[in-house]
Every structure is written in C-alpha cells, then in structure tokens.
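Tokens for Chaperone protein DnaJ. Go.
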Amino acid sequence: MAAKNEWAEKDYYADLGVSSSASEQDIKKAYRKLARENHPDSHPGDQAAEERFKQVAEAYDVVGDPEKRKEYDEFKKALASGGFRGFGKKAGSGYAGGFQEGFDLGDIFGQRGGFAQEDGLGDIFGSFFNRGGAARKPNRSARGSDVQTEITLDFREAAKGTAMPIQLTAEAPCETCHGSGSKSGNVTTCSHCGGSGFVSEQKGAFGMSAPCPYCGGTGEQIEDPCPDCGGTGTKTRTRTITVRIPAGVTDGQKVRLAGQGEAGRNGRPSGDLYVTVHVKKDRIFQRSGDNLEITVPVSFAELALGDTISVPTLEQPVRVKIPAGTPNGRTLRVRGRGIQRKGAKAGDLLVKVEVKVPKDLDAASTSALRAYAQAERDSGFDPRKDWS
C-alpha cells in the first residue's frame, strides 16, 4: 500500500468510482465489485487487470478504514486550501503558494526529517492531523514481508490441480520465545511514550508527534530479549510448506498463500507467499481456455466409411464416433471432458482428425487400393472438382 507521503498524488475516491461523501457501505460495495472484476485469478496473465486490482485494494485500504479516511480527507482539504504553502520557499523568489518545483514531501515527513520510513513508521501525516492531544493507537499492524517463489508443473498437474511441498527459507517465528521476542514471554508498556507509540516533536511552527524511537511506534518494550532471536521474535530458517494448486491454473499465474510469508517482528502477522506457476507443454494436449485440444491420426477408410475410435482425456480414454464421410481436419467435440475449474463449467475436448498416409504397402494392399482408385474414377468422383 502507498505510504502517506504519496497521498498528494492519489485520488482514492476516483479509483473506486465513488464521491468523497460516499457512505462506508457504498465504498465497500464499490471495492468488492471492482476487486471481483479485476481479480488476477479471473484474468491470468493480464497485467493491466492485476495493476487495477492493486490500485483498487490500495484505495480501499485507506478510505475503507474510518481513521485513515479521516486523515486522508483532512490532508486533501489542507492541500486544496494551500495549507502547505511556504514549505521550500526560495528567498526573494516571489514564490507564494503550492509546492515548489522539485519539492519532496519526504523532505519533511520522510527520512530527511529524521524518522525512519521502514514499515511505514516514517509516515507522520496522521500525526500532523492529531490536534488537541487526542490519543493515538500504537502501530500494531506492521506485518512481515511478502515472499515470492516459483514452481514448475506438468501440463496435467496444472490442469487437474495438485498439492506440492516446497522448501522456503525466510524469517519465521522464533521457536524459543514463540515469536514474542521476550525470554519470559512478557512485554511491558514503553516508558518513553507511555504506550502511545508516539512522542512529541516540534517542527518550526508546527507541533507534531513522531513514532517513538525507543519502541518503534509499537507502544511496547522488551526488558528481557530472547537470547536466540535477540528480541526480534523471528529467526531465519528453512521450512516445508505444502502448496495446493487449484485445477486449471495457467502458465505464469500466481497463487497466494495468506500468512505463509515472512513472520512479523515480535508476534505481528506474517506476510503472504506468492507462488508463480510455470506449466510445461504436453505431448498430446493443448489448451484453449478451459477446452482441451488434441489431434488424432486416422486412416482414410475410417473417415470415408465411419468408425468409432478411442481418444485420451485427462482421466480415462473415451470412445468417439466418426461419421461416414468426415473430411480430413474436421474437429469433433466431446462435451465436459476439458478442464474443470472450481465454480466453473467444465470445458470440452476438441478432437481434430488427421489422415495418416501409409509409407509402404504390401502387394495385397496395393492391389486393393488400385482397384478402389479405378472404381472411384468410374463413379465420377473428382477430388479437384470446383477447386480451380
């Protein structure tokens, strides 16, 4: 999600297609509709839809939260009324309003203002609007980092779905302190900020609060750090995770495993694991949406006289009837024998018939074929009639 120092360039209401006066219910309804329309699972490989999905999620993360929405609205109001005029003003330049060209909000609210931005703690726009001494909640939401990895599947594994164990080396909860970071498992209220997670800071004409540098904005401190993790609550270790791949996954599609990424510090939530799936080509099957396509070699006699042949599927072979007089290259459809994705109608199996011409014929076959060719000519059949 975007840091608050990017709010100046964002219009989250427009991203969700609602007005700034929209109710919480209307915002939630708009978000659900857009998230459903642009979800990566519904548009595998569509980068535009994936970016739109992220944009909508970012917007809802802010205006869908009453506290963040209030801060965002106040910031936009102050920005529109020129409430930030004068910052970065050049002496004698006559510059009277708005932001100076090249001015970076990070000069005031980021690391150059003396506060680290890691885990979003450098963003103090919310503190800027904390007038009147209202109590602030300590930052307890910082979660672990997301992790990305890749796997390669056979075509049929991807089509039918599978479960696959993978090894992941990342930050995991410390097994000694169970992720708390404390040897005894107890944490205490930070004595420097009184548990608020913020300390007062004077910046020129403004009185603002900043994340407490002693507790990192959490409002808590550890008196007896765990000797194994040094008080962080996490350690790097390798673990085995079973990744369940849904049926019908496509090449390049990402599968999200919530909470399986890096562990958060001191018991905070873990990030997510994103698994990019690569799918090998199959010797027989090709895919077109949820349909499967195969090309089956047949004889001339089978097409001319008609026959019933056996063709493979993802499960057991099925019998397919070839009507007499079927032309070479025709595609026959076997309904419901394609890919079955969860919650969707099963695709079909499309069987293309292709004549296989023998290279060598014995004397009997050659004699019989010559007799047929003569009978064919006697009947008046001309394969090139109306061709040119």
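The longest helix spans residues 47-63.
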